Amino acid sequence: MLRSKLQKSALYEDSIQNSELLDLSLQNCPSSEISKYFPNKNTTSNGFLDNIFTIQRNLNAELNQIDFKKHPIKFVYNPTVYASEPCEKYFKRYCHNSIKLLLVGMNPGPFGMCQTGVPFGDTNWVKNWLCIEGHVSKPPVECPARPVQGFNCTRKEQSGDRFWKFWSELCGTPDKFFSNAFVYNYCPLAFMDEGGKNLTPADIKDRKVLESVCDKYYLELIRLVQPELVIAIGSYIEKRTKALFKASKMTLPVICLPHPSPRAVNNNNWPEKARNFLEKHQLMHFFQ
Predict the structure, then answer these.
(1) How many domains does one find in the chain?
(2) Uracil-DNA glycosylase-like domain: which residues (predicted)?
(3) What average pLDDT does the structure give for the chain?
(4) Is residue 241 part of a domain?
(5) For residues 29 and 108, what is the distance between their CA atoms, to the nearest angstrom?
(6) Residue 90 falls within a domain, yes or no?
């Protein structure tokens, strides 16, 4: 069986020294906005979701204290804040306390989650397959080359289009997919340079503080969800997850699904790779 008992040791804590803070900021995002759509514990009846929202709210609060002004980062978006209405709908509709497979992506893409608040959130698939829509406002400082248009965005998110198309063809309905699986992003922030080029956490040289905050709440989420298996989407998340689990003495298995990005070398046949991955690890029965 895949299930491994999670260790009951204290939550992983990385101290954050003020002198180590990166010079890039979400401080222009008011604290009151961080939890506008992530309700306080007493406002919902589902205790599991209460805890999910608390983790997200606390993660955003700590990220809000980091300055990110170091070159080449010029813009930081947090769609769990300005697109928090559809983001909350995604959690409420599909996140539950019997998740067996947790699929973990890196961070929002400019034409996906940055527009819809949903991981790999190409607008077409979020609206028409996941059946999620909602109000999307604007980040405090918007990159002129990467405007947030919400569900009016017509540009396709290539990775998200590949990702959700594959699962729709395999599972038929989102309820079938989410009956055993859930998709979550390690970091809720999107980073861009002055010209709007997308920068992932892996592109940030001085990312120690960012990773320490994301690690802390990623581990809290893992302990809450208690999946049987973590499926890291891409090598960065695989390495990050394995390092975190080793430091925390956690024995939960981690495997790596190739990232669906069309920019990856020799990745035109990603759907075939994804199917082979599921067959290799004997996971097809979770989706059929």
Answers:
(1) 1
(2) 94-271
(3) 88
(4) yes
(5) 18
(6) yes
pLDDT tier, 8 (very low <50, low <70, confident <90, very high otherwise): very low
pTM: 0.85
Percent of residues, the chain, with pLDDT higher than 90: 79
* Element holding 31 (H helix, E strand): helix 31-34
Is 124 exposed, middle or buried, given 0-12, 13-18 or 19+ CB atoms closer than 10 A? middle
Q: pLDDT tens across 56-86, in order?
A: 999 999 999 999 887 789 999 999 999 999 9
Residue carrying structure tokens 């097809």: 284
Instruction: For residue 164, give the amino acid letter.
Output: W
Could you tell me how far CA 22 lies from the centroid of its own chain? 21
Q: Is the pLDDT of residue 159 over 80?
A: yes
Q: Name which of 5-14, 103-112, 177-186, 249-258 the model is least confident about.
A: 5-14
Cis link prior to 30 (omega < 30° from 0)? no
In a domain, 62, yes or no: yes
Q: End-to-end alpha-carbon separation of the chain, Å?
A: 19
DSSP per residue over 96-110, as a string? -TT--EEEEE-S--T
Judge whether 9 lies within some domain. no
Residue 181: which of 55, 285, 256 has the closest Cα? 285
CATH of the domain at 26: 3.40.470.10
Rounded Cα gap, residues 179 and 177, in angstroms: 6
Structural domain range at position 37: 18-286
**Distance in angstroms (rounded) separating the CA atoms of residues 222 and 206:** 25
